[in-house]
Amino acid sequence: MKKRIIAVLLTGVMMLSLAGCGGKTESSAGETKDGVSTESTETVELKLGHPLGPGTSQHIYLEKWAEAVAEASNGKYQITIYPSSQFGEARELVESLSNGIYNIGWVDSSTMDFLVPEANMLYLAFFFEDYAQLWSAIDGNTGAKLTEITEEKANIHLLSAFSLGCREIFSNKEIVDLSSLKNLKFRVPELDMWINTFKTLGMNPTPVAWSELYTALASGIVDGACANWETIALQQMYTEAPYIWESNHFFQTGFPAFNLEFWNSLSEEDQQMFTETCLEIAAEQRANVEELDGEYKEEILNNGGNILARNDFADIDEVIETYQNGLWKDMVAQADAQELYEIMCTDTGKNP
């Protein structure tokens, strides 16, 4: 009787040990590597958490990727997507993925600099002129080098980047040239990179919590801020700050990604499957964001907003030259990222 009780208890322990954030749910005979079965008949459940809402383009297309993976793998891999920071905020997600707490995850490129300082090169203000230039770099040698660095420093393998939109400057004062930006009280988060970015334009960076921005605009505490088109439109920022410069100063990206040890445990065939399905879905997601951007801009114009195209800003060449000879160099040196910076310049046709 005792033996039977012990056997039951041991069975329960073994079943619990199979539960987790990336494990097999159907067992069969076969070797395993780092807890991942090498048998093609295994069903492997993967749980991917991200900080964005369930209605966002990023979540919707992560769900589409999960469906594509299930189909391409004939049901071997089942990815469940958990939105709204259920597994932690953006930085926590990167740290947990790096440490192997999760086998799969979401990496916001703006929150990975604590492990990969070179990632801040994607946030050199005004470096990328448009989406086409951004993607040519990220899908080219720039992305390949960043993936290599991220594997080495963070123990994370990046897949194809999703778009989180680009940030535009909006103000309650007309924006046409550098003189119109001088001393503009501009809302920023309390982060050095942001403060230095807008000081370079002669603005007066003013830390204000995002939740207080609308009131701060209405009361004159600040004159302007920046956000992507979705936020400007849906939160109706244009009602208090109707002058919008399509500056494209920051392009924001996020990556579906794997813990490197888990990734290396996969067969080449499975690695190729994850890579190719993500590449296809990421391309669709990027196109979706650009389509939505167009709809948001039309909504803003129809409701009294004014939009100045990036290159219609009178001093755009001076702006870029000022950053290239100042803040870009400082950020490159701080991140020890000269090699990556030079690759970025090559990918985008710039002189380092």
Automatic annotation (TrEMBL):
Q: Which UniProt keywords apply?
A: Signal, Transport
Gene3D superfamilies in the cross-refs: Bacterial extracellular solute-binding protein, family 7
Q: Which residues form the signal peptide?
A: 1-19
PROSITE patterns given in the database record: PROKAR_LIPOPROTEIN
Task: Say if the entry is tagged with keyword Methyltransferase.
Answer: no
Task: Give the InterPro entries listed for this entry.
Answer: DctP_fam, TRAP_DctP_sf
Q: Name one GO biological process term.
A: transmembrane transport
| Assigned protein family | Belongs to the bacterial solute-binding protein 7 family.
**Name of the featured protein:** TRAP-type C4-dicarboxylate transport system substrate-binding protein
